[in-house]
Amino acid sequence: MRKLLSLVAIALVSISAAATSVQAQDVKVIVNTANPLSEMPAGEVAGLFLKRTAKFPGGAAAVPVDQAKNSTVRGTFARTVLGRPASAVDAYWQQQIFAGGELPPAVKTSDDDVIAFVKSTPGAIGYVSAGASVAGVKVVSVK
Amino acid sequence: MRLHRLLLAALAAATTLPVTAGAQSAEPSFEFHAALNTGVGRAKDLPILGIPTYATWDYRTAMLQFRYKVTDHDQFVLQLLNRRLGNSPLQAAIPDVAMQWAFWQRRGNWGSFKVGRAPMPRGIFNEIRFVGTVLPFFRPSFEIYGEGRETVDGGVFTRRQPLGNGFSFDFNAFAGSNEVRTQVITATGNSIRAFRGNNLKGVQGWLNIPVGETRVGGFFADYHIDSDTARGTRGEILYSLETRIVPRTVVRGEALRVYGIGPNQDRKSYSTEAVVTAHEKFDISGQYSMTDNRIFQRAPLQNVNVKATEDIAIGGTFRIGGGALVRLEHHNVKGYAFDRFVPLLTNVNNQPVIAPPSKGSYWLGSFAVSF
Questions:
Q1: Does the distance separating the beta carbons of A121 and B35 come in below 8 Å?
Q2: Which chain B residue is nearest to residue A9, measuring alpha carbons?
Q3: In this structure, what are the phi and psi dihedrals at residue B267, rounded to the nearest 5 degrees?
Q4: Between A43, A65, A99, which is nearest B119 by CB?
Q5: CB-CB contact of B217 with B206 (8 Å)
Q6: Mean pLDDT for each consecutive 10-residue tract of chain A (143 residues)?
Q7: Is the torsion defined by CA of B17, B20, B24, B29 positive or negative?
Q8: DSSP B302
Q9: B323/A99 touch (CB, cutoff 8 Å), yes or no
Q10: Residue range B266-301, pLDDT digits in tens
Q11: B160–A43 C-beta distance less than 8 A
Q12: pTM for this prediction
């Protein structure tokens, strides 16, 4: 019995380690060029994407835009900026939807689509892969 | 009557209140969502919560939600609910398909207001009690959430107030009426009571603390019952705590007191649970719940407190992707609230005394998906 418990404990520790050893990849958080912000704390960015707040620190209304559900960049953004795994973010939105609360941000299926939306929408905030070309939008430094 | 006037005034105020400065929306006007939580259960020794001693597959909740965004600040929401509870006597009091929600909502800088039939903000799980993908077990603690009290037929006001340094306070107030269904255990047998709580009014507050996504909640509501089997008032107080202060772990605790007259009632329930995310795809959950029920007796007999139910549960959840998961749980149950009559009283020296609690257990395997 003790041997079995030890095996279970080792297995759990191993899968936990495997889950956390995924290499963190940078993402760029972008806003419209009309937006005066150049840096934001991660907590405030998370507040906008989880719709806990609807406005930028300056008071302007925010329109967050997300990436496709199974994309790598969405997983990285969830872990590094929202501070939780993508599955926990999905669970958060299921909770909001079925509690009659907020709906998740609209989804764009590629970096280019996110950039095009942010470029054309004054209050927009999105994120793209670190290697994406961000001409025409402004990159916000996330602290 | 005064309550109705207040509601009308709140509704009128909500329709004239200013809304948030407009932002171009990227969201569609019409949204459709669905959730399914379906299980197979088998009890040992005694049937409980609709699960017989042979396996039942007739165990399910399914929801269809439709939202129509009228403007950036107004939406109309309908949610249909299908519930099957196996062999539970409660099934007779539950329609196969119910209009669970039908509300209009206005949002603005001042908060939000729902009118119609809306989810009741009550404790950690009430608004999502049927959504298998966000629950640690098939259902939240039966001792705390029971049956009914899911919705408010009336109005619900909600506001989040930032308090600075990452703290915030969520305030909810509601008024109207609600549904209550209970399986009543007496010395002679079990019966089902379904009635409406009228002149319902209540509040739910949450203090959000920026450490470990901790929140501490308090709920209070009271309502009048005016049915053939019960006539009187009921009050409810519920305290809740939820924290993720321990890495990869969610700890929750809730304490409920239901009290009232017509007939006299004083029930205290407690539930505590921990969910450990061992892997992004796998959770292990444990839960302890119990209800302490005061039995009121005529003088010269004294009132007695009985531990009516006790449930120790353990479960595992595996997320298979695409918003779906499978779950297996086992419950050890002790007490008097089974689907088959178990004795509440026994005779010792020709004196009626409380019988020892009966024991049972059940397995429940389930599949849940939502989008």
A1: no
A2: B278
A3: -130, 135
A4: A99
A5: yes
A6: 48 40 65 94 92 87 92 92 87 90 91 96 95 92 89
A7: negative
A8: P
A9: no
A10: 999 999 999 999 988 899 999 999 999 988 877 777
A11: no
A12: 0.84
